[in-house]
Amino acid sequence: MIASDSKERFSNRVEDYVRYRPGYPREVLDVLREGCGLTAESVVADVGSGTGLLTQLFLENGNLVYGVEPNAAMRDAGEQFLEKYPHFCSVAGSAEATTLPDASADFVVAGQAFHWFELNAARAEFIRVLRSGGPGGQGGWVAVIWNERVSDRTAFQREYAALLREYCDDYAKVAETYPQYARLSEFFGRGAFAEKLLPNAQVFDFDGLRGRLLSSSYAPRAGHAKHEPMLAALREIFDRHAVDRRVRFEYQTHVYYGRLEAGG
Questions:
Q1: Nearest C-alpha neighbor of 219 from the set 178, 177, 179, 165
Q2: What angle (nearest 5°) sits at the alpha carbon of residue 47, between those of residues 196 and 101?
Q3: What is the C-alpha to C-alpha distance for residues 168 and 164, in angstroms, rounded to an integer?
Q4: What mean pLDDT is predicted for residues 79-105?
Q5: What is the Cα–Cα distance from 86 to 233, expressed in whole angstroms?
């Protein structure tokens, strides 16, 4: 883990997170239908569900979704965001201790929270929660769905990445934990997994870009010595690259999916 308080890192960033973090493309559902047999009847546990961006995708597909979130502020925001969906069930739990019953879900999914999980404990918990669904002791499906910011395709992206390295002291440490093949291979064990890449993007005015930056756990908050200089540098980058007072924030959405094997 990067910090012992990882489950509370976003408590003071919830508003920015809700307003400025990207959602997930609907094509994620197509990938899981084709690769894993997802249907509207599948029961889904979204672990580390946060404010509900990934949960919403499955609710709109008709799924019953357990949103498992350890951070009270994020969980409250998710409950408000998703209150219109009758198939949403909010759960106070974590990846390592979801509190869900044995064999209660067909899919466990995880979004941006995956890199905070303690892998061995989360893996054992997911195996417990998933229904048996395959040969050789395989259970149901796990999908790790991750929006990765494109950092080097344009001058704007390169300068934004340089700003993070200069002003955000935790940025490099957090970035090191983003899902990589070796970490995912360790997590899935002997169970094979596949990956699909999908395009995703946001378009921001300056206030939106500012909010997107401040939604990140590594961005220095107001009162920190680097906070105001960081925002001044952000304004300069925006002014250099905005077209019609907007900049484009591009992502690749990674969809990693596979089964877990008990004892794998």
A1: 165
A2: 125
A3: 5
A4: 97
A5: 44
What pTM does this model have?
Answer: 0.85
All structural domains of the chain with their residue ranges: 6-148+173-201+251-261
CA distance 39 to 62: 8
Q: For residues 216 and 8, is the Cβ–Cβ distance under 8 A?
A: no
CA–CA distance, 49 with 71 (Å, rounded to integer):
10
Distance, in Å, from the CA atom of 91 to the CA atom of 8, rounded to the nearest integer, reads 16
User: Judging by beta carbons within 10 Å of its beta carbon (0-12, 13-18, 19+), is residue 255 exposed, middle or buried?
Assistant: buried
Strand locations in the chain, DSSP E? 43-47, 64-68, 88-91, 107-110, 138-149, 193-204, 247-261
CA 90 to chain centre: 17
Tens digit of each residue's pLDDT (9 = 90 or more) over 109-134: 999 889 889 999 999 999 999 997 54
Does the domain at residues 6-148+173-201+251-261 carry the CATH identifier 3.40.50.720? Answer: no
Report the alpha-carbon distance of residue 73 to residue 4 in Å, rounded: 18
Burial (CB count within 10 angstroms: exposed 0-12, middle 13-18, buried 19+), residue 60: exposed
Kindly list the distances between the CA atom of residue 6 and the CA atoms of 14, 71, 262, in Å, as whole numbers in the listed order. 14, 9, 27
In the three-class reduction of DSSP (H, G, I as helix; E, B as strand; rest coil), residue 213 is classed as helix
